[in-house]
Design brief:
about 450 residues, alpha/beta, Rossmann fold, five-stranded parallel beta sheet, three-stranded mixed beta sheet, 18 strands, about 40% helix, ATP-binding, AAA+ ATPase domain-containing protein, nucleotide-binding
């Protein structure tokens, strides 16, 4: 059955005023033209059903013989939008109305009620949300008790978040935030809540990737208007002389309206010294603080860094900042098993493998012994993998193809030696120093 859109803009052409049938008697035309129609060659009345229009009757061919070879909606040369349709009646051939209806399976103007579907929801983590998506296909013909279409729109982002190694607490907190916003609970008659977010964690733990996932999700859900994600540092916001910093900061904010502004290492915007009078930093942070309120419906600002440093710098300069960042996520440090998983994920992405005879327990033990030197976690795993590949290339030079891209423990040890030299890590760092930038 061909179903026509009942709410398109239509017109009747090739009209002959000598015809003696009023439009409200020609049911097939009446079924296709609901909200608009033309009269006197181009009939147009907006926003009223035909039955309520108080106009002189327009004469059309009488039933059962309708001088029409075809009645079909098609794109109008007069209407630029493809959503607007035309209805033409050609008067060259007589066609019995009933016969035409039999040959053209047209669905008349009968309203259809959407099927109501209730999905069981018991969401406590990201796996529960993905299970709902996997078990329930979205259909336009159904009305759901949750925003199932929205969940399907962000399916890829949810999978990307799930695949990130570790971060159990952070993933759960993000899901709580998502459930709040996807139900539009943040919107009221007086405005909407702040979306601004802090991600606490050491370098190399995936803060930028997490921020991008959050931004993409809220863009696809319509919570943010645009898919903008802009990562900035101090040099992008602070100018070389007073008066220009506010202008520079405001320009960055304008570029991000509708999307996400991400400030990594946000404590670099201010000095930790309470006696310091860095006017440039204060001008930047004060300007940013004002924008957080003025554009809270259109802007999401995400900052990242260590909690202690952010409290002593970024939040110290302007006390109003703290209350505007109502969402706080924490990325914990990786343990040795997670570091090994990150390393192996890099191998998989670049199609490298472990040598067949390498022992799993031996590899785990290796990462456990070395973990305290990997103070930048994921970033250090990227560096280590690069050095291991270099060492591997030296070892297998001139050997058969079957040995290539298969890492041995010797490759791992040799790559680690290069890593230590380049990172200048002379000894295992005490635990306290792991939480500080070098």
């Amino acid at each position: 059955m061909t179903s026509f859109n009942k709410k398109f803009i239509s017109y009747l052409d090739n009209y002959d005023s000598s015809f003696n049938l009023t439009i409200d008697k020609l049911e097939i035309i009446k079924s296709l033209i609901q909200d608009n129609y033309y009269y006197n060659k181009v009939y147009t009345i907006d926003n009223y059903p035909i039955s309520t229009i108080k106009q002189p009757p327009q004469r059309l061919p009488s039933i059962p013989e309708v001088p029409a070879s075809i009645i079909t909606p098609r794109l109008s040369p007069r209407l630029s939008s493809p959503r607007k349709r035309t209805l033409k009646i050609h008067t060259d051939v007589s066609l019995n109305y009933d016969t035409w209806m039999e040959n053209h399976e047209v669905e008349l103007n009968t309203p259809t009620e959407k099927k109501k579907v209730v999905i069981e929801t018991n969401v406590s983590n990201i796996e529960d949300l993905l299970k709902i998506i996997e078990e329930n296909e979205y259909s336009n013909d159904c009305e759901y008790n949750i925003d199932l279409k929205g969940l399907h729109n962000i399916k890829n982002e949810l999978y990307s978040l799930q695949k990130m190694i570790g971060m159990t607490e952070l993933k759960t907190t993000i899901i709580h935030q998502l459930l709040y916003f996807i139900q539009r609970l943040h919107i009221s008659s007086t405005g909407s809540d702040f979306k601004h977010t802090v991600i606490y964690g050491p370098p190399g733990t995936g803060k930028t990737e997490v921020a991008k996932i959050i931004g993409n999700m809220y863009s696809k859900l319509g919570i943010l208007e645009k898919s903008i994600f802009k990562k900035v540092t101090r040099s992008d916001l602070i100018a070389g002389y007073l008066g220009q910093t506010a202008i520079k900061t405001n320009n960055v904010i304008k570029d991000c309206l509708g999307g996400v502004l991400f400030i990594d290492e946000a404590y670099s915007l201010a000095d930790a010294d309470k006696n310091s009078s860095d006017s440039y930093s204060k001008e930047c942070i004060d300007t940013l603080c004002e924008a957080l309120s003025d554009h809270k419906e259109k802007l999401m600002v995400i900052i990242a860094g260590y909690k202690k440093e952010l409290d002593e710098t970024f939040f110290r300069v302007n006390k109003g900042m703290d209350s505007r960042f109502i969402w706080r996520f924490t990325i914990d440090s990786y343990d040795y098993k997670e570091l090994k998983s990150i390393f192996e994920k890099l191998m998989e992405q670049q199609e490298w493998f472990w040598y067949d005879n390498e022992n799993e327990l031996e590899k785990l033990s290796w990462f456990e012994r070395k973990k305290d030197t990997f103070v930048f976690f994921g970033r250090d795993m990227e560096s280590l993998f690069t050095y291991v590949k270099i060492s591997h290339g030296k070892r297998i030079y001139g050997k058969e193809e079957q040995y290539k891209k298969k890492i041995t423990m010797d490759d791992l040890d040799a790559g680690y030696s290069i890593f230590l030299k380049n990172k200048e890590v002379k000894q295992i760092k005490p635990f306290g120093l792991q939480m500080m930038y070098m």
